[in-house]
Each structure stands twice: as C-alpha cells, then as structure tokens.
Amino acid sequence: MARRKRKGEVELKPNHIGSTNVDEAIKSDRAEIIRRCVNLLPEKYAAIITMYYLEELSYEEIAKAMEIPLGTLKTWMFRARKDLRKIVESELGDHQNV
User: Fold this and answer.
1) Residues with Cβ within 8 Å of residue 98, at least 6 apart in sequence
2) Is the full-model pTM beyond 0.85?
3) 80 lies in which domain range?
C-alpha cells in the first residue's frame, strides 16, 4: 500500500467507480416503480397519496379538495399507505436489497 502511494497510484474502492451514479439510478428506478404502484391503488387512495407526497398538500387541503372530513382522510391515508406498501413489496420482490 505504501509503495502505491509513493508511485501516485490510487487504490480503487467500490465507491470510486461511479457508485453515486449507480445509487441515483437505483433510486430513480425505485421511484418509477413506486409511481406505477400508486396507479394500482384504488382511485381515491392514489389521489390522496399523490396530493400529499407529490403536490405536498396538507391533510386539511386534501380533505377540503376531496370534500371529506379530516378523520376520513386520515383513515384513507392509513389504508392507502398499507396497500401501497404491499404493492411495492410485491413489485420489488427480490430486488429490494439492490
């Protein structure tokens, strides 16, 4: 190792070989899978998940837009997240550890 440093050689580690680009590609792929999974939810669940996470609306704003009580929205969000988790896990399958 000391000899390499004297010669100006660099030891390649996994993170030197574009791992940032690989990590970004994996994140992008997962994000795309999750977007597709949201579309598999019942329409009302897909709508509230999209409004909350992508449009960054508050619960109050979503409840008003959907014309539902806040308590109903909270119940729907709980169910939507639970359903989405199952769908994503099913879609990712063995690729979760990538």
Assistant:
1) 26
2) no
3) 17-97
Tens place of pLDDT per residue across the chain (98 aa)? 455 455 555 444 454 445 567 777 766 777 788 888 999 999 999 999 999 988 999 999 999 999 999 999 999 999 999 999 999 888 877 455 54
Distances from the Cα of 81 to the Cαs of 1, 8, 17, in angstroms?
50, 52, 36
**Number of domains the chain is built from:** 1
Q: Which is nearest to 45 in space by CA: 2, 86, 6?
A: 86
In eight-state DSSP terms, residue 80 is H
